[in-house]
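Quick one:
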Amino acid sequence: MKVTNWGKYPVIEKPEVSYHQGMSLNGSRWIARGMGRCYGDASLGDKMLSSLKLNRLIDFDEEKGILTCESGVTFEDILEIFVPKGWFPSVTPGTKFVTMGGALAADVHGKNHHKEGSFSDYVLNFLLMTASGEIIICSRTVNAEIFFATAGGMGLTGMILQVTIQLKKIETSAIRMQSIKARNLTEILSMFDEFESVTYSMAWIDCLAPGRRQGRSILLKGEHATLDEVKNSDWKNHPLKVPNKFKINIPFDFPSFVLNPFTTRIFNFLYYNRQVRQEVHLLGDYDGFFYPLDMIHNWNRIYGGRGFTQYQLVIPKEAGQEGITDVLNLIQKRGMASFLAVLKLLGNSNGLISFPVEGYTLALDFPLARDLFPFLDELDKVVVDYGGRLYLAKDVRMSPEMLAKTYPGLDEFKAIIKKLDPAGKIRSYQSERLGIHSIS
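Output:
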């Protein structure tokens, strides 16, 4: 069967089978796979074990908000069941179509990383099936070494079967938002500093604006609204309502010529100028704030049949202004248009090969084209020069050399998975491409 992830590249023809207790793997090489929302080849391999039938809720402490569930439970499942009870994920990525196992394996971060950390910070423990078939429990005190190797370890320590996580208490399902225009990169970075105490923040950034307008942006801040803040709104009588599931569907792949520097420049101009006032305050539902693209079914088809990749980098905070400027300069010099570009502030690092470091992360979406990968090689040099790194959950073409230069915990991580899996049974095409596993 043909299998691919969200970027639609690469496409492989390998078996994907549902995991069930006691199944025999017959010495085969395998990697766990959830919803397939990573962008590249991290959950692709010779054999893929699907976690989607591991979708049961095991236990919930209604007073403390502690949830134990199987690894195939998604953020969408949790939102629908627990928002009406007054609980919300402590950390959520930009799509709710991600499993709990996938969230831990990628150690996903959200709009609140600068203040509240990544997903693994709210994982109390998990059950892991190792390469030998043994099932072990891992926490910060039990098998701690494996716990921190699994957080951000891209599924290479084993198959996560069950997780126990801490949810966040909320009074309403509404988000109190503020949207602020920034004239250039200097201004948007100063805003991130000014509003560092805000729980949620991110910025749309125009990567093609030249000169004094380079890096012009729109900052979006958010907080969970209180009951008092919604007393004169649609949330008054139903403060914990779940948003309606209205979706726009993209029924076919767009022609490849639709997204180009000219159309992207027009989109950026319209998007930036649609907000007339400098600041806008509004009350909205959590779907519109956290998951705007989820309302467009199959939005990855916009990038055409060849697919796309998201290049997500982080530059340490002290080098942020200079490093992001050099990235934008190179984008403009090469005429490479990112249709969607998002800038966020990250906090401290977590896990051996977990992505975040304290600094600014920029996520850039590029349709696949013949000259794209050589251009991304150039961007790699900028990222390395400023002490940054790339996010493995989005990567589809990074080199082993760059991984080794930018992830100082890599050797320790390799030693742990070698001890867990001396025969190298658990592997992905990404782990082979990056030299974590040898190709044989």
